Amino acid sequence: MPEQLKKEEVHSQTDPTIAKQLDTTTPKHDQIEEFYKTVDGLKIGLMSTNRPKIGPVSRSMAIAKRQGPDFYFLANKDSQKFKDLDNDKTVQLTFQNSSSQDWVSITGEATLTSNDHPKVKELYGPSMKAWFGDLGDGVHDGSADDPRMAVIEVTSKFIVYWKSTVSTLGFVKEVGLGALKGQVAQTGITRELHEADIKHAREGN
Question: Would the pTM count as exceeding 0.70?
Answer without folding.
Answer: yes
